[in-house]
Amino acid sequence: MAKYLRCYMCSDLHAASRTYRKLLNAIRLNVYETQVVLIAGDLTGKAIVPILAQANGRYYATFLDREYHIETEAERQKLEQSISDIGYYPYVTNQEEVDVLRADSAKMSELFRQQMIQRVKEWVELAEERIGKSGVQFYMMPGNDDDMGVDEMIARSSYVVNPVGKVIHLDEYHEMISFDYANPTPWHTPREWSEEEYYERIKTSASQLKQVNRAVFMIHVPPHDSGLDSAPELDKDLRPRVTMGDVLRIPVGSTGVRRALQELQPLVSIHGHVHEAPGQGKIGRTTCFNAGSEANQGILRGFVFDLGKDKLDRSFRVQG
Amino acid sequence: MAKSVSSSGLFVRQASGLVRDVSMTNALFFNIAAFVGTAVGWAVAFYALFPEWQGLGISAYAWMALLTGIACYFLGMIFASLTTSMPRSGGDYVFTSRIISPFWGWLESWTLVGSALTIIGFEIIVAIRNIQLTGILLGVAFPGNGFFSNAQNWFQDNTSKIIAGIVVMLIIAGVSVLRTRTFHKVVTGLSIFAIISVAISFFGAFSIDSNAMNTALPALHTSSSAIMTAASKAGYAPGTPDFSFTGLIALAGLVSVVLFQFIGFQFSSYIAGEVKGNVKRTVFFAVVGALIFAVFMNTLYIDVLGNHFGFNLTNAWGYLYWNGGAAPLNGQPPFTPVMATAVHPGAWPLWLIVALGNITLNILLCPVYAIFLSRIVLAWALDRQVPEWFSEVDERTNAPLRVIVIAILLGAVFYVLTFFGVSPASTIFFGVLLAALTWIMPGLNAILMPYRRPDLFALTNNTRNFLGLPRLVWYGIVWLIFIIPVYLAAGVWPVIKAIQAKGASEFITFNSTDGVALSLAVIVVGIIIYIVMKAVNLSNKIDTKMMFHELPPD
């Protein structure tokens, strides 16, 4: 073994294909000289951009406040790429189907599900193609925003690993356990546990570790009031609460996660979920990371950290 | 793909999301607040920094501002393009460190920080002067009031200057440490107020002519002949259009003053990491919108005021002010709200609004600078060019508070330097000189980007060719053709002349060679810091190249 194990972590890519391709290139080009890549959840996007087929063989779409009349296939593909790059899903359709989808939330949900699963499938295949033989361990964890269907796409891969529910041996000294759920959110997303349940699940999983003090915990939601979980406070309509012209910010991390980290004291815990609160902090001897996310702006944010046998040798924030 | 006017919707599902706080309006007014400064009331005072003449009824200053505005359009396009491919906070530092090298990115932004700190210092000096001028205005409006009629004698001793300076710095600090969203709301609101004052001043100037101004000068305890005589005695001579080598050197100097007035129109690029929505569009409109306003303020606005208040009069008065002569009102600049109040005492409330708008933009520039400096330092710290201590974001303000406080305190140092004989004009020139790399490197970045970083270039909005070269390269070439001769003529030539005339000892004197020695000292300190931090990072086995690496998506 080298003197340390170099890991790279990022999170909340939210279907932003350009940012994801940057990640793959960073590994392919060995930019971060990393042996382990950890994606700490939230792989899927939040919006579909309908591209309307017109009667004359042309297409019409609106994207980022700009409206397009598309005349050629090349133009359509270019627009689809732009839409995918920022984390939306392009969907070629017609006005009739749009009207149906708007009226039928179940059909809309199913469409989202298909799009999310398809994008993750493409990502997994791209990873196999570009870095499958690199020797780098590649762990892709879903997050609370992700449909359950994406797990199956990752599970099919010969290279990409979903670490949830497993004890992963990163090397001879360091094990990792992973949790894709969040504490309850106002959006009632697909993967949420109560605080008590979260605490219990972490405790149970940690009991399988040989040496928890050398372990890595990959937990999508950051610990409560850690400085890595400061987000806008929302009102009942899910709009940010504003007082005296200021968005109020509150800690939204998990108290269950915090309690578990305080008691178990792993070497490192890595998180995502709260895009606006990147940074690193300490809970006791545990160093916690949240890379934040600007994936939809095309920026790949992450942390590189080196695990020594019993300690964190170094860590630094990177963005590309 | 053609644009259309109709629209269709987006399908959105509920999920947690990212919040960015800076809108296009905020970005536009951030830019405007960064450059206008004290130009609302002082506009005509800047005429006299270099020999001034009129051609076709337009001042040399306005001609140069128009030329600078055209050139700055290309600079604006460069910033918009670079921001498009690298939409993050840090501006020039990020661009140059990724396209050319981390060292040049560091040096460029380090000298920009030095330059910006001098500008904060200059604005503190001017803020105190503006308080005094507002008092004088009220003294002219109410001649019987003993308090205001003595305003020209306020802040003459160091104690009162220090107290006033501390008060101004507290106001600057109070705005600077607001939470990000509140900060931008305050900047936007105050800028709108100041723009209203610009409108009052611009249209109000039409109610004044040079005869009325001359008649009203006794209310300011002076006369036209007294000003002209004193100015002539101090060396002032009305200029004529001169396109000889000497004349062109002088025009280049004038352009450097205009550039000083323009600094900031592109500053939204430095906070691109906080801009919400379509970053490319927001930064583009904010930069171009601010540039249009900058050109207006330095062409139409200044000449309307200059012509209506008297071109020769304002030049002579300004000359006396900048050259330490016996300027009227105990050494004040030609401040148009005071002059207008002398002409129309009954209209004092309107001119008071102009004076207050002037103070507003003057003081507001400092927190805007502090914020933009903090983003540069934040980008440095993220790349470990400075200790991470600087990058810690305060939870209450969502901003790197430590840097903001340090920036204000260092700006205050330049204010304190004036107690030891450093003139505001020297401060301006020092700032302009030190900002040389900031003006030059964007042109180099634009020219080199397609070849050094084709992956980033592909993400800009200027990839199409023109005459065999990418448009972005042409923008860089046009900009460098403009800026390099200006800097050689306005920055290097005066230093050479000063040394030739007075000997090498002048080199180390701050005032006489306009701060060249201090500029070099700042550069040397910057290089030392870079080397030390590189050594520290190496000893910690941190490869900074990783942090600088812009990743190609394909």
Mind explaining what this structure looks like?
The complex is a heterodimer of chains A (320) and B (554). Chain A is an alpha/beta fold. Chain A is globular and about 65 Å long. In chain A, the strands form five sheets. Chain A has a six-stranded mixed beta sheet with strand order 8-9-10-15-17-16, covered by helices on one side. A five-stranded mixed beta sheet of chain A has the order 7-2-1-18-19, with no helix packed on it. Chain A is built from seven helices and 19 strands. Chain A starts with a strand and ends with a strand. The mean pLDDT of chain A is 90. Chain A folds into two domains: 5-44 and 117-319, Metallo-dependent phosphatases (Purple Acid Phosphatase, chain A, domain 2); 48-107, no CATH class. Chain A has helices at 17-28, 73-85, 95-103, 105-131, 149-155, 195-206, 255-264; strands at residues 5-10, 36-40, 47-53, 59-63, 66-70, 89-93, 137-141, 168-169, 175-179, 216-219, 230-232, 242-243, 246-247, 249-251, 268-271, 279-283, 286-290, 301-307, 312-319. Chain B is mostly helical and 554 residues long. Chain B has one domain: Amino acid/polyamine transporter I, CATH 1.20.1740. Chain B has a two-stranded antiparallel ribbon. In chain B, strands 5-6 form a two-stranded antiparallel sheet. In chain B, a hairpin with a 2-residue loop joins β5 and β6. The two termini of chain B are 23 Å apart. At the A-B interface, α1, β3, β4, β5 and α2 of A face β1, β2 and α8 of B.
Write the layout of secondary structure elements.
The complex is a heterodimer of chains A (320) and B (554).
Chain A: E1 5-10, H1 17-28, E2 36-40, E3 47-53, E4 59-63, E5 66-70, H2 73-85, E6 89-93, H3 95-103, H4 105-131, E7 137-141, H5 149-155, E8 168-169, E9 175-179, H6 195-206, E10 216-219, E11 230-232, E12 242-243, E13 246-247, E14 249-251, H7 255-264, E15 268-271, E16 279-283, E17 286-290, E18 301-307, E19 312-319
Parallel strand pairs in A: 1-2, 2-7, 3-6, 9-10, 10-15, 15-17
Antiparallel strand pairs in A: 1-18, 3-4, 4-5, 8-9, 11-14, 12-13, 16-17, 18-19
Chain B: E1 2-3, E2 11-12, H1 24-35, H2 39-42, E3 54-55, E4 58-59, H3 60-85, H4 92-99, H5 102-141, H6 146-149, H7 158-176, H8 180-204, H9 210-216, H10 224-234, H11 245-262, H12 279-309, H13 311-322, H14 328-331, H15 336-343, H16 348-382, H17 401-417, H18 424-434, H19 436-452, H20 454-457, E5 465-466, E6 469-470, H21 471-502, H22 516-539, H23 544-548
Antiparallel strand pairs in B: 3-4, 5-6
